[in-house]
Amino acid sequence: MTATAHPRRTSRVHVPGRRALTLITLIALPVVVAADLGSVALVKVSVEDDAGEAARAGVMAIQYGQTATPQTAEIAFRAAKEVADLHRLTIDPATFVVTADGSVRFAARRDAPTALFKHLPGLRDLTDTTVTVSAQRPNF
Question: Is the dihedral of CA 129, 92, 85, 139 positive or negative?
């Protein structure tokens, strides 16, 4: 009589709280995804307004009737950057332009604060928002 080989059976290990951990994960994941979606949507909606506010601050920093010079451009940039920093925007200095009539134009970007999207390659691009804005000096 030959002995037949039986596959070795491993006993199941009981992990206390396994169901609770699974349940918490299944509840938390949709909540985190919803929070990340809300954060991305809020940033995409608000970036243009916030950058426009920074552009208007740059325009208002240049005194009325003053011609555009490198010094006035620096003053306008500092004023725009100060407002942009309040809104957690990053102004690209290479795109910052002050025209002869005192108008200001630049590109600004902001990353949405997310818990999950910033770690997933397919969704990471959704968190970055870049806009180009301009503001003109008001006619008095």
Answer: negative
Q: With a threshold of 0.85, does the pTM exceed it?
A: no
Strand partners, 130: 109
Spatial distance between the Cα atoms of 29 and 24, rounded to a whole number of angstroms: 8
d(C-alpha 5, C-alpha 101), whole Å: 91
- How many residues appear in the chain? 140
Q: Return the structure tokens found at 118.
A: 């910033």
* Tens digit of each residue's pLDDT (9 = 90 or more) over 36-92: 999 999 999 999 999 999 999 999 998 777 788 899 999 999 999 999 999 999 999
- Choose among 124, 120, 58: nearest CA to 89: 58
Distance between CA atoms of residues 56 and 104, nearest Å: 8
Q: Distance between CA 98 and CA 80 in Å, rounded?
A: 12
Q: CA-to-CA distance for 37 and 49, rounded, in angstroms? A: 20
Nearest to 134 by CA among 88, 87, 101, 112: 101
